[in-house]
Design goal:
This protein is mostly helical and 116 residues long. It is built from five helices and no strands. It is elongated, with a radius of gyration of 19 Å.
Length: 116
């Protein structure tokens, strides 16, 4: 009986670890990431839509294209680097370098809310 209880506890523990790992590594579409960026950068009240400041863009559509291209390009770069373990951290360090930790926390918050 003790062996069965121990095996059951080990099984439950492994299930919890595997489920939490699967949730933590959920992949997001480029559009979901782009929409979350739009929200955390201030939506329609932002000085520049999507926080795009290095390239001139005045309209929502043009800035969204630039944001999506940034996500796509960094996705390709991420595959060939070894420092970061997850793409969102990699993206955060390039999209918002000085405050990347706060930016990343906000990005994950909105991605996990699934309101996009």
């Amino acid at each position: 009986m003790k062996k069965f209880t121990i095996l059951l506890l080990i099984f439950v523990g492994l299930c919890v670890i595997l489920v939490s790992t699967a949730i933590a590594h959920r992949s997001y579409t480029n559009n979901e990431i782009c929409n979350a960026i739009y929200i955390i950068e201030g939506k329609e009240k932002a000085r520049q839509p999507f926080g795009i400041e290095t390239i001139e863009c005045k309209t929502y559509d043009k800035c969204k294209i630039i944001c999506l291209n940034t996500i796509k390009n960094n996705s390709k770069r991420f595959k060939y680097q070894a420092q970061e373990k997850d793409f969102l951290t990699f993206l955060a360090k390039r999209y918002c370098p000085p405050n990347w930790k706060i930016w990343l926390k906000n990005l994950k918050y909105y991605l996990d809310k699934e309101i996009l």
